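RETRY 2/3 - previous attempt timed out on the joint model. Re-submitting the same 954-residue input unchanged.
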Amino acid sequence: MEFEPKKMPDTETEETDIQKEYETAQKYEFETEGIEEKLKDILKDNDKEAAEELCRDVHYVDIANGLDDLDEDELKQFMFLLPEEDVAGILESAWEELQQKICSFYTNDQLIDIFSYMTNADAADLLGILPTYRRKDILRFMKKSDSNILKLILSFDEESAGGIMTTEFIALKETLTVREAINKIKQIAPETEIIEYLLITDKLHRLQGLVDLRKILVANDNTLLKDLLEEFPFYVYADDDQELAANIITKYDLTILPVVNKNMAILGVITSDDIISVIDQEYSEDILAMSGVSKDEEFDSGFFESFKNRIPWLIINMFTAFLASSVVGAFSSTIAAVVALSAAMPIVTGMGGNAGTQTLSIVLTSIARGEMNLKDDWKLIFKEIGLGLLDGAIIGIITGITLTIMYKNIFLGVIMFFSMILNMIVAGVTGFLIPLILDRANIDPAVSSSIILTTFTDTCGFFIFLGLATVFLSKLL
Amino acid sequence: MEFEPKKMPDTETEETDIQKEYETAQKYEFETEGIEEKLKDILKDNDKEAAEELCRDVHYVDIANGLDDLDEDELKQFMFLLPEEDVAGILESAWEELQQKICSFYTNDQLIDIFSYMTNADAADLLGILPTYRRKDILRFMKKSDSNILKLILSFDEESAGGIMTTEFIALKETLTVREAINKIKQIAPETEIIEYLLITDKLHRLQGLVDLRKILVANDNTLLKDLLEEFPFYVYADDDQELAANIITKYDLTILPVVNKNMAILGVITSDDIISVIDQEYSEDILAMSGVSKDEEFDSGFFESFKNRIPWLIINMFTAFLASSVVGAFSSTIAAVVALSAAMPIVTGMGGNAGTQTLSIVLTSIARGEMNLKDDWKLIFKEIGLGLLDGAIIGIITGITLTIMYKNIFLGVIMFFSMILNMIVAGVTGFLIPLILDRANIDPAVSSSIILTTFTDTCGFFIFLGLATVFLSKLL
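RETRY 2/3 succeeded.
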């Protein structure tokens, strides 16, 4: 549409009329604080109608959030007030723990009915969290065509391309005419998630390319799909990691990405909205992992869940803190002779940690985007060494002069200057190499990089500073 | 499509035949290392044909990456070999610095022609980076209908909903019949970015809801759009922040989100692929900002760009390091008396920093998702105090016993135990409050939280530990 802003009603008088008159597109009420109370009322009166009304007015995502505060009996009572369609909607929007609880209320037959209101990908996710015996039973009692797709999806890792793909897409043979295609589309359309692009295959189901629905709408009835075909060189294999799919879609700004098996037969499609949750998940995992928190912890997780989640990381950190402390302990006679060292040494380690974390965060985000790896980019280490030298010299001069003035001893300042440079180089090199080496070894670099980094910058920082001070002790006294 | 996996060719013999025979959907060559050489060859021979072929074979994103290594004359020579359509494609995929260089090669008239191959959103982005006088000239010489839309987009902040929205959508009046709608769609379709959902308006352009194209395809010719209308309660105002749009789309798993003005007239649409880059950008900005790196730095940024980017943060950190150091300095007589304290004190501050960062990262990711704010969630501070108490007691007991054994002094152990608890509580409270308070004050919490946190945990940690040691100094000797 050629949108023409000048036609819009924008004078003041018009506006008031419009706002009064305007009724339909009511904005969604994002403040869903009242939902707990509404749930209580519904439960008190066992009010089926009010429950269904709630599902019409409030998004399933918010209902699922509200259900978190109910106990198991209340939850069961509420779910049993709802028709299967709403149960399906809430299940799709709930997180795993709530999904498991809700599924336990229903028989296998009921679950099969509920699954029929979901996409295959969502149904497969739910099957994946059920106990094995239930999963097997349900698959056995389903229609063969449904259970085959679900088994296929379940055969892939949850975090693989096959695990996140949509199976509701339109695939047409290249030999169809536009008229035949439109008829097929009309039949299939209500069940499909993706309609904008049609996947085109040869007679053996193998991906040949895409046809844009826009082209079909304007094309001549007898044109063959083959002649409208756009080559589309992007696809992933079903067992590729979801991060690879996310990186391809993000980098090349794609709307859809076909998922194929090794014979190039189309198994499914990943859309940009599937990728949003992947990116959201991977990034917050990275931020949390860098700080030693598992992805399972939410800001409102229970006390003991948070405790269990955080204490292991603190204990690991404690050992590295002892390591750094023992370096200081080894130089206790030097410190006893020049107490000023004890005040100056945290500056060396602290600044090393900060500089190293800067490098680390850039390398980590670049690895997460698939832009960087050890093999191609190891030469950039010389840039980090140079930065360590320059940043260290600048910070070293300022801190060195300050210490010289404070403690009236130029040698303390000189030792600070050289320690700062050396520790900043250590920081740059480790901040650069650690994540790349971990990534190369297929270890998630976000989890362990920062602790290894600070272990290096602390122990090396103390060692360099106190070591230099010990060597030049006579000058410091 | 009902996809039936059993029909796929999957026996070994079939597979070899297929792979030989298979020709069309060639996988995109992601290893684009050879591109620099190809560019050199093209430039040497001034080979127009080879340049166009490169644009057909290699994605513009990768060509733009390859152009980074050319000097200005080479770049100009290469760009002038290309037809306007390819120039447009490369401009859309390039980052700002390269875009500015390329735009400088062309006259205003040429740029207007190049813009005609782009979406309005991309053209507006490019106009936004041009010098003001060029922007004004170009807008003046454009077709009125084009320049009006571009002016509209340019009037919104780059990081607002209006700044990222697409203006190529289909909006139809609710009084149209399905037949009329299909005719309009056929006319507009080739120019639109979104075809899956049609936005439905009343006669004053105000959003009434959506109609799914799937429904139109199967509906009766004379049905009114009004009768196919789905209410759609999600929309944002053009000057809302892009993060709000990203949070709504992510939370409610939407494919599109209409952007309206205050009169509810539709200005544009945000799609899930627009949001991917927002999320990608916001999250990596958060990770980088937490570590004191600006979003403009890439892993392969030039040496001095990286230097300029990182040194301010290091200097700020240096001042906080001096602050912590001066706390230690104030207790120098205590340390002189008991040198063991200098080895033990980094354990207290280090563990406080670690525990605080755990809390901080959870609060930061929850704020970024719009799940948490000071008003609704301040009560969770009691959980953090409890966690500080429990974690501090556990870590405090282990470190306390170790110090008691190492230095054969139980009072040192007891002081460590209480200092650890107190500093972990400080860490939990500051890690929780700082980002929420900054967010409330509309300051980006990712940028400044971590430095304020470690300033607290370092200075408080040293003060608590050395302060207790000073009070009980007689017991330690």
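The longest helix of chain B spans residues 410-440. Closing ticket.
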